[in-house]
Amino acid sequence: MPKNKTDNFLKAIKKYAKAQKNAMQGEVRQLKTERLNEAEKTAKRDSEALIKKKLFETRSRQTAALATKTREGQKRLFIERAGMVEEIFGLAAERLEEYRKTDEYTAGVLKSAAEIAELFGGSDCVLYVNERDLGMADELKAQFSGSAQVKADKTIKIGGVRGFCESMGIIADETLDSKLEAQRGWFIENASLSVL
User: Fold this and answer.
1) What is the rounded CA–CA span in Å between residue 114 and residue 118?
2) Facing residues of 151 across strands?
3) Is residue 134 part of a domain?
4) pLDDT number for residue 2
5) Taking the complete model, does pTM exceed 0.85, yes or no?
6) From residue 51, how far is each of 3, 42, 54, 141, 195 by CA, in Å?
């Protein structure tokens, strides 16, 4: 029987050792599972943060590139629009140059001079015209009751008349140049040539 007791004791120790081993292995598995889950959560959180960061950087780059392209496009459109306006006003100036050669132009300049004379009353004044219109000097002076001088002005490229009354401090501009230029702002606003 003593052998039996020893065998039972050894069996009990082995059983206890096996139970302890199984418990430790279970704890190790549980610890491994917890650590693995924790590592997965950390990796997932870190990867999501990295993805968000990369997406933000990509969006920022794309937004900056789009803004640059938009500015470049608007600049190109602005230049094209300005070119179109200059071309249109160049053509209008050419038409006005053709108009200058008509009797209607001469009558229009004399009418403008009469309006300027009415504005100045009997005051002395100086009339400025394009050099090509100096031949109308006597007809222009005849529109004024006060004394009038007629002088060439190189700033008047197309034609018309500009009057200056020093005593009144008034300039009356009836040149085709200024009338054409006055139309530029109206044309840009109303010609649907806007740059977005």
Assistant:
1) 6
2) 128
3) yes
4) 60
5) no
6) 69, 14, 5, 84, 38
Query: Residue 149: which pLDDT band, with cuts at 50, 70 and 90?
Result: very high
Parallel/antiparallel/unpaired status of strands 125-129 and 160-165? antiparallel
Domain carrying residue 134: 102-190
Domain tally for the chain? 1
CATH of the domain at 175: 3.30.2320.30
For the chain, the residue count is: 196
Q: 36, exposed or middle or buried, with CB in 10 Å at 0-12, 13-18, 19+?
A: exposed
The answer to whether residue 42 is domain-embedded is no
Phi, psi dihedral angles at 148 (to 5 degrees): -135, 135
| Percent of the chain whose predicted confidence (pLDDT) is above 70 | 96
pLDDT in tens, 18-63: 888 888 888 888 888 888 888 888 888 888 888 898 889 889 989 9
